[in-house]
Amino acid sequence: MSIEQSSNLITICSDSIGDTAEAVVQAVIHQFQNQQITIKRYGNIRHEEELRKLMEEAAQHKGFVVYTLVQPELREMIKEEAVRLDLRIVDIMGPMMQAFIDTFDDAPQQRPGLLHQLDENYFRRMEAIEFTVACDDGRDLGAMLKADIVLLGMSRTSKTPLSIFLAHRGKKVVNYPIIPEIAPPQELLSLPPNRLIGLTMKPEYMLKIRSERLKVLGLPTGSQYASLERITEEMEYASSLFNKLGCPVIDITDKAIEETAGIIMGYI
């Protein structure tokens, strides 16, 4: 049965914050044409009564439940509730933990939320996010010299969401808009190519995105911003700048943010 044929609700249950399970769910949803899925997330589940209540609610919608539970009593209970309510459940962490036990002869700590403890990595991610937000769209040119990654691209090449995604991976990111009428700053020209990433896409795809953007803003779609002539001009200028800088260039046409971020992490 496809997602389209079944209920459109996926319930996420976690004894931590649940973002691991949601990341997996989102990755799966992108594989299906029908992406009109509602995700309801329950985090920090610690007691059996909480678990029972959310399972009963999920059963009313006839969707399914995805869970990341490490406490043995909750793991056992969710299986019992699934049988009682005739509800499909998907264990995200269980098979991986069992493989770890079988292969390395070790035992899990069974403590919820270890991934999100306030350790050095957590503070590094928070610092990266604050840095990246403050430097969005070329607001602080001097910050380029402190950045781990500088994203370059014309308008509507997903620079901002990609920057934030990378920041959540602990990378300080500056994104800079490429505009033919504005010469690149000296800070940009002084950076080594391995800290620069160029973003581009197919002209017809860009034309569609910009036209839709103008509709959302209530502006006329016949403006120069959404003309193929202007887009071609910007792309030719961007291509010449990328060549001058000697940086890698990624065509983001039809690529999800996660996919593009994975390519960038591979480069650096």
Automatic annotation (TrEMBL):
<keyword id="KW-0808">Transferase</keyword>
<protein>
    <recommendedName>
        <fullName>Putative pyruvate, phosphate dikinase regulatory protein</fullName>
        <ecNumber>2.7.11.32</ecNumber>
        <ecNumber>2.7.4.27</ecNumber>
    </recommendedName>
</protein>
<dbReference type="Pfam" id="PF03618">
    <property type="entry name" value="Kinase-PPPase"/>
</dbReference>
<keyword id="KW-0418">Kinase</keyword>
<keyword id="KW-0723">Serine/threonine-protein kinase</keyword>
<dbReference type="GO" id="GO:0043531">
    <property type="term" value="F:ADP binding"/>
</dbReference>
<dbReference type="InterPro" id="IPR026565">
    <property type="entry name" value="PPDK_reg"/>
</dbReference>
<feature type="binding site">
    <location>
        <begin position="153"/>
        <end position="160"/>
    </location>
    <ligand>
        <name>ADP</name>
    </ligand>
</feature>
<keyword id="KW-0547">Nucleotide-binding</keyword>
<comment type="function">
    <text>Bifunctional serine/threonine kinase and phosphorylase involved in the regulation of the pyruvate, phosphate dikinase (PPDK) by catalyzing its phosphorylation/dephosphorylation.</text>
</comment>
<comment type="similarity">
    <text>Belongs to the pyruvate, phosphate/water dikinase regulatory protein family. PDRP subfamily.</text>
</comment>
<dbReference type="GO" id="GO:0016776">
    <property type="term" value="F:phosphotransferase activity, phosphate group as acceptor"/>
</dbReference>
<dbReference type="InterPro" id="IPR005177">
    <property type="entry name" value="Kinase-pyrophosphorylase"/>
</dbReference>
<dbReference type="GO" id="GO:0005524">
    <property type="term" value="F:ATP binding"/>
</dbReference>
<dbReference type="GO" id="GO:0004674">
    <property type="term" value="F:protein serine/threonine kinase activity"/>
</dbReference>
